[in-house]
Amino acid sequence: MFSRKWIAAAALGSLLLAGQAMAQDKKVIAVxxxxxxxxxxxxxxxxxQQAAKEINAAFPGVEVVVKTSPSxxxxxxxxxxxxxxxxxxxxxxxxxxxxxxxxxxxxxxxxGTFITVVDRGLxxxxxxxxxxxxxxxxxxxxxxxxxxxxxxxxxxxxxLRGIPTVIDDERIxxxxxxxxxxxxxxxDIQYAxxxxxxxFKLMQDYLAKYPHIDAVxxxxxxxxxxxxxxxxxxxxTDIKLALGGNGMKDIVKKVIDGDAMTPVETPYPPSMIKTxxxxxxxxxxxxxxVRGTVKLNAPLITQxxxxxxxxxxxxx
Amino acid sequence: MFSRKWIAAAALGSLLLAGQAMAQDKKVIAVxxxxxxxxxxxxxxxxxQQAAKEINAAFPGVEVVVKTSPSxxxxxxxxxxxxxxxxxxxxxxxxxxxxxxxxxxxxxxxxGTFITVVDRGLxxxxxxxxxxxxxxxxxxxxxxxxxxxxxxxxxxxxxLRGIPTVIDDERIxxxxxxxxxxxxxxxDIQYAxxxxxxxFKLMQDYLAKYPHIDAVxxxxxxxxxxxxxxxxxxxxTDIKLALGGNGMKDIVKKVIDGDAMTPVETPYPPSMIKTxxxxxxxxxxxxxxVRGTVKLNAPLITQxxxxxxxxxxxxx
Lengths: 316, 316
Fold this sequence. Notes:
The structure is a homodimer. Chain A has 10 helices and 10 strands. The first copy, chain A, is of the alpha/beta class. Chain A folds into 2 domains: 4-134 and 269-299, Rossmann fold (3-Layer(aba) Sandwich), CATH 3.40.50; 136-256, Rossmann fold, CATH 3.40.50. In chain A, the strands form 2 sheets. In chain A, strands 2-1-3-4-5-10 form a 6-stranded parallel β-sheet, sandwiched between helices. In chain A, helix 8 links the parallel strand 8 (215-217) and strand 9 (241-243). In chain A, helix 7 (196-209) crosses helix 8 (221-234). Chain A starts with a helix and ends in a 20-residue tail after the last strand. In chain A, 48% of the residues are buried. The model of chain A is unreliable at 1-22 (pLDDT under 50). Strand 10 of chain A pairs antiparallel with strand 10 (292-296) of chain B.
């Protein structure tokens, strides 16, 4: 009886040891992202958590750990914490700012961790193994193409800009280069800082100033919400199109519902964090080569394909 | 008793129906690739089958089906067969030839299938949703950088070319642009058509013609095998480096073993088919955005990282 108990205890011990060994053998992917400080980053957090859930369920040998940080300084501390407590096989990072995160990420890379950078590049691109981002020029260009087509090649437009950044510059450049030489004319273009309230006020100014406007390009979905409210309150009927950009679920829902004023959308999807996580897993689990660069297109979201871009449970 | 039996039978019936419904609900990813007609494509077949095994085990809702074809005409028939018997949610294709496969792939796209194209592009790039390829310029450039460094910035080289194609042109361009302005001098450069025997003979010619050679760039691993044999048979000791390209397992093994003449390798990995399959799964399973372009780097494979590129069970 004693011996049988002992064997059972020994067997249990082996199981526990095996369990621990397995936990230690798991490949760890840390995902470091900004906290949900506005709609788009809230989407990033949602999709990172979804990816972790899906990957952890699908691959028993992998553990995806998601950590959000409300500032660049806190993201630097988070990286120290994540890498102090265990060896990271991979780090997927959307840096809060390029300057402050470059050296801390380099330190993790130097310890032998695979580095995937999403959206905002580091100041030293040699640190990243994989870089993945959207295409802001295409966001502007594809929106412009649709407007040219829909308005029959001519019309009076007003445009809203975001915050002066490379992102905003590229979107505007893609748009302006595409309408060049057509009958589409930009009556006015001003900054509203990716802010719904500012966009509402700016659109009210535009409406007061221009008795005829065919279309508005809000360049961003938060700003589009302000624009739509201003148009609605004005009671004006001359405005045929008001388009945004980014893939906010409220706007994608309009596209699904066949909204007349906002029949299309262009994505700069926060779900790109998920693509980066899946690709990093492909490298760790399947030894698939992923070192390189991914440039995501910004295909027009129409009623036909909108469901692919719609996440009713996401905050964004 | 009768009623209990009936309930049990009804329950079993529901289970069977549920099982059938699940099988029908599986998202199908067809993978269409050339048959294993030489080393590199044999690697493609191996990695596609590995990916199918891994994905089918990890994601119960997905079925990856791999089909190999020994010619462009047979790949066209294979596509017809694959899409006739069931709805394809996605097609991952490495086209045998661009011209013959473009229209058949377009027909599948038009039926609503997601299209991932690997390595060889179609003649109409608007058909693909995702395009993934390696970087042949980097294969040449990164090899050249290593040679410049290893030979101290000067030396006499001989180079072998493959088959006159864009692939070969890009590799050679990457190499020649990088050595420009250094003390590395190409004594001779001739075609050996990615063939081991031809490379053996060409290298014998080079050895007869040039009494002093510091390094050989074979540009491809099949050709490198011929070159190494010719050098070995000659008994010459002036040749310090003989490098290839592609990531053949025999050459990666040399790197792992610290071979003096072939201490590094550059990948153009057949395992890129696996990356394409994982990314397509990310889109189908996780709604992750993958429409766009992936350009894989050709980082130098050294003794430090060679295990990541080594597949002892692969034919290549």
